[in-house]
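Standup notes
- DV: blocked on the single-chain target, sequence here:
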Amino acid sequence: MAGRFAPRPRSAVHVRAAAEPGARACWTPPDGPYDLGLVLGPLRRGPADPTFRQTPDGAVWRASRTPEGPATLRLAQRADGTVDAEAWGPGAGWMLARLPHLLGEHDDPGAFVPRHRAVLAAGRGRPGLRLCATGLVLESLIPSVLEQKVTTVGAYRSWRTLVRKYGEPAPGPVEGLHVMPEPRTWARIPSWEWHRANVEEKRSSTVLRAVRVARRLEEAAAMEPEAAAARLRLITGIGPWTAAEVVQRTNGAPDAVTVGDLHLPGIVGHVLAGERDADDARMLELLAPYAGQRHRAVRLILLSGRLPERRAPRMAVGEIASR
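- DV (later): unblocked, structure below
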């Protein structure tokens, strides 16, 4: 649920621990409007993501595997902009301590200067945008690997299948939410189960290489985005596209541009220059005026409502499980 409110003089987080029903906190956004759903939207992997849920009342539920164990986090925004949080599970304290980072407190939207009318209009229409920073690498890396070179719908289905089968029910009062598997469990998934989840050997092997060095990869969340992306790319099968998708979410990286995407260059080219056939090089050229804030510019472009019309039907979901 979007929320706009009068500017606040500063941000703050107040925590109150309780055994039942859960640990609680509230967070006051910095000056300016704030939109909880818009901030956390990139963390959702499809409408049926088993680790993410947004309820009709506007509350956002997330199930995560933290360094201290599984946790469920419920976030709800008041009319005045304050975000109330409640967390359950062994990782509840970790989740609440990270709350300001997750909600974008350390992001600086004031550093962004629109250079195109469409971007300016999108910013004015969705002023509550901030870039979140989860601090959890694997929970963004694994679904991003599953999205490599396949349809988004197919990748969402694979993620849903694997998390429901090999993850665990999330702590707390909500049913149907799952915490993704721990690294050891990912490493033990049989090859035929990857196949049944419609994940071919190339992507499953990338996930297996990543979970074997999970601790080293999780360290990337505390690095500068460029160094974090470089750490991720040390893993065979993780290239610029995947690394950018991860550091955008994990590190809140305002300049991490997703290159190698099938559709994004054409969208950026269409909105900024009327060039729907733009390639990566042209996209980066058009985004050059936003150096340091190129990811934020892309988020606003995608929110502009000026996306090009499709030239062909959506790609069918490839079924490798039947091969």
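- Follow-up: The longest helix spans residues 152-166.
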